[in-house]
Specification:
Blueprint lengths: L6 H13 L14 E6 L14 H10 L4 E3 L6 E3 L2 E6 L4 E6 L13 H12 L17 H4 L14 E5 L2 E5 L21 H5 L1 H6 L7 E7 L3 E6 L13 E6 L3 H10 L4 E2 L10 H5 L3 E13 L5 H4 L3 H10 L3 H7 L5 E3 L9 H4 L14 H10 L8 E6 L3 H18 L5 E6 L2 H9 L7 E2 L2 E2 L5 H9 L13 H12 L3 H18 L3 E12 L3 E2 L15 E2 L1
Parallel strand pairs: 1-10, 14-15
Antiparallel strand pairs: 2-3, 4-5, 5-7, 6-7, 8-9, 9-10, 11-18, 12-16, 12-17, 12-18, 13-18, 19-20
Helix pairs in contact: 10-13, 13-14, 16-17, 16-18, 17-18
């Protein structure tokens, strides 16, 4: 999302960001004032079907609106562009979209805007990272086959009925399919995306409350309020300047100095000071985020039989309670399953599902690592991106815990990678040789989202390429179940397969933490730990 800029506005945005003053003709406190917020360069260009990481996701949430939108307080999926979504069998859906919606270039949004976007995202030749999200739609195996060339250009399960109606046929029952449709991969796209793709990529056109004005990689992205936005969640400010930081401590320092309005990830090193520094302008709220350690199962050392004992031993060598207390100051909670407490018990969170495998037990840890054949090469190196200050601290703490438990000060070491983008690129290229940071921020508040995208064979965010036929079978059964309680129970059975294999090591559940300047009001984080930018007021 790059390209041509409205020069006057861009200069204004920069002035607002740096001097913390109103700009663009608006008096302090009115809806024309721009705010500045910390950010990191996204891994990929911002196509909705090609963005599956947090930084890019923040922007997509600002410039797009889909059929559903997740409530900023509860996370519940609510109709946005969808007038109604009907089904009689949880496999065939008729979707009717609302009148009056357009893209920011004035083009009306029609059924084709969705169907064409989903066909593009699913196509193998377009190589979109989120293609897997269309995997339940009939015909996906021909549009995006597991091997060989694609045999169709369009998903047979998508049919346009008229300008405001289209149908979706899934390859199997998926009772909660409508609740997934607030995820950005399901966003509509304008005709210009297809007719002049290069131009659209240089300056994307969406249908959300903000429009991108300019982006300079490594510096900032300027977004402005779209005055003609037809939704009921209009921006209450004039725009947002997302400023790129490679160190969250620097962002925090800029906040205190008055050079930045909002930091949406308070670094661990500052947590002991943040309440004194910011008082009531510090936010610490539960979020649908879990931090884990993933493993490269494409590496023969980690994919061989018996290594589940080593992984379980490493899990038991980590003193989660001590680390979350001393480093994270009550912004993290030791994980006892692979989901998040924000789901609630009815939604699938099950405290203690991990059992003893997540308890700190040095004696058992040492025993299991030995029984499993020992650490590959005698040492594990935990890879992480170093551009966020808190990662180095907790990785060092995890390694110290492992070293102490195993009685070997060289058993574990950190392996920093310079930037988040570089880190993600190495993961995508399957270059990991040991455990790596794998935090997960939910796409939508369903237990399915904490399991299927991460552990299902060849799933979109299954970065370690773990594969287990029993897990896949249980997930398919759970998705087909129309009784919510039974579906949740079956997903938990699948989660137990993850546990028994220690497919990934759960570390802790994460709160959303943010701090903001005294220029801002009505600041909050949604259940995804993302600032609700459109509701923020300036002045």
């Amino acid at each position: 999302m790059r390209g041509a800029t409205h020069a006057t506005w861009a200069v204004c945005a920069a002035a607002a960001a740096l001097a913390a003053t109103a700009c663009g003709g608006g008096a302090a406190g009115d809806s024309g004032t721009v705010l500045s917020s910390s950010w990191g360069d996204p891994q990929n260009p911002l196509e909705p079907a090609n963005t599956n990481e947090v930084q890019g996701g923040k922007v997509l949430d600002m410039i797009f609106r889909g059929l559903k939108k997740y409530n900023s307080e509860t996370g519940k999926a609510e109709d946005m562009l969808a007038e109604k979504i009907d089904t009689s069998d949880s496999q065939n859906f008729t979707i009717t979209i609302k009148d009056g919606w357009t893209f920011s270039n004035g083009e009306p949004i029609t059924a084709h805007s969705f169907v064409d976007a989903w066909n593009y995202g699913a196509s193998l030749k377009n190589n979109q990272k989120n293609a897997y999200f269309y995997g339940y739609i009939d015909g996906y195996d021909k549009v995006h086959p597991a091997g060989g060339k694609q045999r169709a250009d369009k998903l047979s399960g998508l049919k346009v009925v008229d300008d405001k109606t289209f149908t979706v046929k899934l390859r199997q029952k998926f009772s909660t399919f409508p609740d997934t449709l607030g995820y950005p991969a399901y966003a509509p796209l304008p005709k210009t995306f297809f007719s002049d793709h290069a131009a659209w990529m240089s300056k994307p056109v969406g249908n959300g409350p903000y429009a991108i004005q300019s982006y300079t990689k490594g510096s900032q992205m300027a977004l402005t309020k779209w005055d003609a936005y037809p939704g009921d969640d209009k921006a209450q400010n004039g725009g947002v300047t997302l400023k790129v930081y490679t160190d969250s401590n620097t962002a925090y320092t800029d906040l205190l100095a008055g050079n930045l309005d909002l930091v949406d990830d308070v670094p661990a090193a500052q947590l002991k000071n943040v309440k004194n520094d910011l008082g009531g302008r510090y936010i610490n709220t539960p979020a649908g985020i879990i931090q884990t350690l993933a493993f490269p199962y494409y590496d023969k050392n980690w994919g061989k039989d018996g290594m589940e004992k080593v992984r379980t031993g490493l899990s038991m060598a980590i003193n989660r309670a001590q680390i979350t207390d001393t480093i994270f100051h009550k912004t993290r909670t030791p994980a006892t399953d692979w989901t998040s407490p924000v789901l609630g018990v009815e939604g699938g969170f099950k405290e203690g599902l991990c059992g003893g495998a997540c308890d700190y037990n040095p004696t058992e840890a040492k025993k299991l690592v030995k029984e499993g054949g020992g650490l590959p090469g005698g040492q594990v190196r935990i890879t992480y991106n170093a551009d966020t200050g808190s990662h180095r601290q907790w990785v060092d703490a995890v390694c110290n815990s492992i070293n102490n438990a195993l009685g070997n000060d060289k058993a574990c070491a950190g392996n920093p990678v310079g930037t988040f983008a570089d880190f993600r690129n190495q993961i995508t290229a399957k270059k990991m040789s040991g455990p790596f940071r794998a935090g997960w921020q939910m796409d939508y508040p369903l237990i399915q989202n904490f399991l299927q995208p991460l552990y299902y064979t060849n799933a979109s965010s299954n970065d370690g390429k773990w594969s287990n036929a029993q897990f896949d079978k249980l997930v398919d059964q759970a998705n087909a179940e129309t009784d919510t309680a039974k579906a949740v129970s079956t997903f938990q059975d699948a989660e137990k397969v993850v546990r028994d294999n220690m497919a990934a090591i759960p570390l802790w559940y994460q709160n959303g933490s943010a701090g903001y300047s005294d220029r801002l009001s009505n600041v909050k984080l949604n259940p995804f730990s993302v600032p609700v930018y459109n509701e923020i007021k300036v002045g």
